[in-house]
Amino acid sequence: MWFRNLLVYRLTQNINLDAEALEVALATKPARACANQELVTYGFVAPVGKGPDAPLVHATNGFLLIAARKEERILPGSVVRDALQEKVEEIEAEQMRKVYKKERDQLKDEIVQAFLPRAFIRKSVTYAAIDVASNLIYVDASSTNKAEDILSTMREAIGSLPVRPISVKIAPTATLTDWLKTGQASEGFFVLDECELRDTHEDGGVVRCKRQDLTSEEIQLHLSSGKQVTQLAIAWSDKLSFVLDSKLTIKRLRFEDLLQDQAAQDGGDDAAGQLDASFNLMMLTLREMMPLLLEGFGGEEIPQGLGTEAPASVETDDPLYDQAVSYVLTSRRAGVSAVQRSLNIGYNRAARLLELMEAAGVVSAASAEGSRRVLMAPPAGQVA
Questions:
Q1: Residues facing 231 on adjacent strands
Q2: What's the predicted TM-score (pTM) here?
Q3: Count of alpha carbons within 13 Å of 312, Cβ hemisphere only?
Q4: Is 58 helix (H, G, I), strand (E, B) or coil?
Q5: pLDDT digits over 253-275, tens only?
Q6: CA 307, CA 74: separation in Å to the nearest integer?
Q7: Which of 63, 105, 179, 233 could form an S-S bond across to 283 if both were Cys, CB 3.0 to 4.6 Å?
Q8: In the predicted model, is pLDDT for residue 368 greater than 60?
Q9: Domain spans of the chain?
C-alpha cells in the first residue's frame, strides 16, 4: 500500500468526510463490468480486500483510503480504420458513387458497435487517500486526467467536493533552480542525482540527467545560460525520495527500507494487517513531510475567499471564470452540466468554477440533490 506517485489536492471547505457517510455515498457509484456496447465504465471498489462485503472506505487513525476502477474495451484504431476503408471501397465499387464524411462517420459508428462485444477489456485501479485532519487528498497518479476521474466521481457521489490542486507562493521552477544552483535544498531535503533542465525560449532545448553529479561544472553552465529546472530528484530525511516537477507532481515516490521494515513489523503476519500498517505509516510520513516541502516553496498559496463567507471576488487562475459567472447570472442556471455545455469544458472544471462562485457568493452551496441557487442579481439590462 505504498503510493508510487502523488497529486495533492486541498479541500477548500469543510465537508462531511466521515467514513460511514462516505461509504454510503460511494456505494451509489460502484464499479461494474462493461456491457456489450459500452466503451468504458468507472466506479468505486474496495481498496483492501475482496468480495461483496469488503468496505469501499478503509479507515485508520483519521486517514481514509478509497479506490476506483476503470474498465474499458480496447478497440485498436487501425482495426477500425481498415474495416472502414474496406466498407467504403465496397460501396463505391458496387454503387459507383463517392462516400462522403457524414456517411463515413455513420459507417464508422456501425463498425465500432459491431466490434465492441469482441474487444479486449482492460482494467485499472486508482487509489486516493484522504487526510481528514489536514484537509488534503493524495491521489496515487502522475496524470491529472486519472486524478480528475476519481475526484469528479467522488463529487458526483457526495454532491460536493471543493478541492483544488495544491499551490505555493514561489514558482516551483524558481525554487528548484535555486536548489540546484546552490546544491542545497530546503532544510531536511537533499538534492539527488537526476534533473531535467529546460531553456526558457519558445523553441529551447531540454537536457535530462540521470545518475549524474548535479554539482558539476557542466550543470552549472546550463544554469548560467538560462535553463531552468523543471524536474529534480530529492530525498527527505532518511524516509523517502521522489522526483518533483514544476507542477508539484511527485513521481517515482519511494519509501525507504526503514519505513517498510517498520510497517512489516507493525503489521503482523496477515496480509490485511500489513496493508493497514503500511497505509498508516505512509500517511503519517506524508503528514509530516508535506508542510515542510510546501514551506520550502514559500508556503502554501491559499486563494482569497475560499472557505469564507461570500467575499466580493475570488482570485482564480481560470481564464473562464468571468465568462462562467456571466453565463450563470444571465441564464440563472447554476448546474455543472449547464456550465459544462455552455463553455464546452470538462465536468471537473465546470464543478470547480461553481465552487469558486459559491465562495464568492454568486451561487448557493449545493443541496443534498446537488442543485444550487443563483444568489446575485442578473447583469444590468438583463431580465431574470
A1: 196, 245
A2: 0.74
A3: 0
A4: strand
A5: 999 998 888 888 888 878 888 89
A6: 42
A7: 63
A8: no
A9: 7-75+119-164, 77-118, 172-295, 304-384
SS (H, E, C) 189-228: EEEEEEEEEECCCCCCCEEEEECCCCCCHHHHHHHHCCCE
Q: Are 293 and 239 in contact (CB under 8 A)?
A: no
Q: Is the pLDDT of residue 382 over 60?
A: no
Q: What is the DSSP string of 272-288?
A: HHHHHHHHHHHHHHHHH
CATH number of 304-384: 1.10.10.10
With a pLDDT cut of 70, the percent of the chain lying above it is 93
Average pLDDT of the chain is: 87
CB 164 within 8 A of CB 148: no
Q: What angle do CA 352, 354, 356 make, to 5 degrees?
A: 75
User: Can you tell me which residue has the cell 461483496?
Assistant: 52
Please answer whether residues 242 and 257 qualify as being in contact, where contact means their C-beta atoms are separated by less than 8 angstroms: no
* Among the listed residues 324, 362, 316, the one whose alpha carbon sits nearest the alpha carbon of residue 343: 324
Give the model confidence (pLDDT) of 305-342 as tens digits. 444 333 334 456 688 898 999 999 988 889 888 898 88
Sign of CA dihedral 104, 38, 144, 9: positive
Read off the pLDDT of residues 305-314 as tens digits, 9 standing for 90 and up: 444 333 334 4
Whole-angstrom Cα distance, residue 240 to residue 258? Answer: 9
